[in-house]
Amino acid sequence: MPAHNPPMYLELSFDLGAVDTQAAEGACWACGASALTFVDARDDAVNHPTKSGPTCEANSSPLDKTPYFVGTPVLEPAPGEFRLWPRTRLRCLFARECDAPAIARALGAALGLDPMSIEVRAVADRVWEREWLEHFHAMRFGHRLWICPRHERVSAPGAVVVALDPGLAFGTGTHPSTALCLTWLDAHLAPGARVIDYGCGSGVLALAAAKLGAGEVHCFDIDPQALCAARENAAANGVTREVQVHEHAGTLPPAADVVLANILSGPLCALAPRFASLLRPGGEIVLAGLMQHEVEDVTGAYAPCFDVAPFGESDGWVGLAGRRH
């Protein structure tokens, strides 16, 4: 019997640069794209997702025309406020029989890009859920904390387990900045603490805090899909009493003991006064999602109200922690 060859697609990818995100989306759909994926170009350049196991296309389908954002855990900004990442790359799938050079020329004309800067390659269709199951396994953070896909079990003595399967919302613990935050929680979270997870994505940090003994955990994200994922994951882990999901930042309670923000350096800087208002004096702030060269700017933004310093680094990503004055 002849071997089954999976259907192939053509992937066109390019850095957005100064191109408006919505304009890029519209141009790609107009050219016949079947799926779009936005990635942090810094991650994409180092470790191309389609070659690295867990990828940002985990639930992408050539029939799914809903773009979503992955790579760096992110609080998506309001239009015109902040970019998704300092360097955002758009990858889009087209049918194999499409005229790739013609599409590259059309995208170049529509978006002011050099068509030669648009990369083209063939990719095979995959059962993405199965791909995730093959590559995503239980991971330990610190001494007790484990993030574990629901199909696996952890038998380590004293293990604190968060059951989490990959999905569209960000966060399974695989990204270095998420791992830094999880390790901090394992080492430093006080029992009974009131915690805020700002830009919660899948809720992985909130779930970990609840499992590690936080008294109450409040999540916020501007992405409705992330809020839905956080609620579902809280229910799956039996922590709906501890974890409260907020649709509006204005409903977050004051006097928190810990604020977690694993987002981007631009929003982190802008949100420093807001985080100061959410924390009690002496409360702890944990910041991640920034690169080594961004530490000075973020530290400076927090200096008026906080004493913050790096607590860890992984693959160029840095975590900052400190206390409110």
Q: What are the SSEs and their pairings?
A:
Elements: E1 8-15, H1 21-30, E2 35-40, H2 41-46, E3 88-95, H3 100-111, E4 119-124, H4 128-135, E5 139-141, E6 145-148, E7 160-163, H5 176-188, E8 194-198, H6 204-211, E9 216-220, H7 224-236, E10 243-246, E11 256-262, H8 265-270, H9 272-278, E12 279-291, H10 295-302, E13 306-314, E14 317-324
Parallel strand pairs: 6-7, 8-9, 8-11, 9-10, 11-12
Antiparallel strand pairs: 1-3, 1-4, 2-3, 5-6, 12-14, 13-14
Helix pairs in contact: 1-3
Kindly identify the CATH topology of the largest domain. Rossmann fold
Q: What is the oligomeric state here? A: single chain
Structural class: alpha/beta
Order of helices and strands: EHEHEHEHEEEHEHEHEEHHEHEE
Unreliable segments of 5+ consecutive residues: 46-83
User: Main sheet: which strands, in order across?
Assistant: 10-9-8-11-12-14-13
Got a strand count?
A: 14
Main sheet specs: 7 strands, mixed
Describe the protein's architecture and organization:
There is one protein chain. The protein is α/β, with parallel strands linked by helices. It folds into two domains: 123 residues, no CATH class; 156 residues, 3-Layer(aba) Sandwich (Rossmann fold), CATH 3.40.50. 28% of the residues lie in helices and 28% in strands. It contains ten helices and 14 strands. The strands form three sheets. A seven-stranded mixed beta sheet has the order 10-9-8-11-12-14-13, with helices on both faces. A four-stranded antiparallel beta sheet has the order 2-3-1-4. Helix 1 runs antiparallel to helix 3. The longest helix has 13 residues. It starts with 7 loop residues before the first strand and ends with a strand.
